Amino acid sequence: MLNELYNDVEYKALLEHIAGQYKGQAVLNRQQTAKLLSIGVSTLDLRISQGRDIPRYIKMGDAKNSRIAFAITDIAAYIFQKRIKTCLDP
Question: Which of 18, 40, 66, 74 would bridge with 56, disulfide CB 3.0–4.6 Å?
């Protein structure tokens, strides 16, 4: 799935935009991800606990409260896949 996205011009533009906001970072923390998605951290935490409607994430450890990080590529893919196709789209 991601391989197809890497070749999409709109996905690349979105990824570059996000990467430009967070120069030098390959992954974002929960606070940064929530801000980028325009949701609260508590909403993001709820979605993580429910395993629904969130970008893929990386859990840094086995403990219940281990650090969670989101790869910029996965955030861009999540946003890109959430687009709504309209009748005006080709």
Answer: 74
| Under 8 Å between Cβ of 68 and 53 | no
Distance (Å) of CA 35 to CA 4, 23, 41, 57, 89? 27, 16, 8, 16, 28
DSSP result, 5-72: HHT-HHHHHHHHHHHHHTTT-SEE-HHHHHHHHTS-HHHHHHHHHHT-SS---EEESSSTT-EEEEEH
